[in-house]
What does this fold into?
Amino acid sequence: MKIPQLSHVPAILVLLVPCVLAQADPDAYSALRWRLTGPFRGGRVTAVAGVPTDPALYFIGTPNGGIWKTTDAGRVWRPIFDAQHLPSIGALSVAPSRPNILYAGTGEQGRGNGVYKSVDGGATWISVGLKETRYIANLIVDPRNPDLLLVAANGDREPGPDRGVFRTTNGGRTWNKVLFRDNYSGAMDIAFDPDNPHEIFATLKRIPALGEEKAPPGPGAWIYRSRDEGATWQLVAGKGLPENDLGRVGVAVAPSTHGQRIFAIMNQGLFRSDDGGNTWRRITTDPRIIGNDYFSRVFVDPGDANSVYVAQTSMYRSSDGGQSFQAWYGAPSGDDVHVLWINPRDHRYMLLGVDQGAIVSLDGGSTWSSWFNQATGQFYTVTADN
It folds into this structure.
């Protein structure tokens, strides 16, 4: 068989190119629409919120599916944020005094563009600023005033001034940056005292710049306290806290039945203060109850200062103020639990956000709704043939 000469190859390629570049007529597929054929499978939940006066009404935020709502305690979930074309939600809160008012902080793993507000239970949304913060970790609404909001912003991946804690007293029309350390330090968590909303605790963390593997040596994280509803802030003394390698710090304030009890979780474990943050001690040596840059969230029952929850690969619960813990929900090293909301009026009503979706309990965690009713499952890999 005679082998073709190389000089013949360009002519062959020229003949093939028109076939490869041929385009289908758009009229042939213009009537087609995307639709979900299943399965309905919940994905990671990054923010949860409930309505204290309605044990059937809950909201969730997801990293790539926007905001969803249920009015029947988790039997059916519906998307309510699709019109914004912004999938990444980092924080979500309902105004306790006006539960038709919701605030959402955008940006979690995906980049966001600030805070959104709804005044009709999530039916419609408007942007209310802080677009340059890009990544919002948490936000809280004053329990008496729906226009007073505090936002804990990580800030963008590049160093810059749009990070820290921001405050509005007029529902987002104007904002003040009330807590700022430097262009590298973002706010990671923020929490009210449930019995005194004038008292607020927030945490900041030095975020490595692009190209850095980790922050420089030193504390790297800080706890701050405000006694005037977030208008001014003071650094918590931190006597008893580690001096270095705190990592991401999560904070929660217990009800005042045991003094002013504060919990802080970090790289070196779970710490507790019973005097408003002046002195601290590590309260458990359980190796499972250690924070890291991915988890580091602690939650307290609003009606019981001894009932403490730590989010990890399982949700761990303590009934003795954090001294001992049991795996309460999820298989250890399985579910990745992220966020918990407990109804402050009745702790039987709970909303839990995990890697597999959102689930509701109406009996204090004995039973839960399904996560096979949410079309929020995340795609990690997509491939196609020719």
Notes: The first strand starts at residue 47 and ends at 51. The radius of gyration is 24 Å. Helices lie at 9-21.
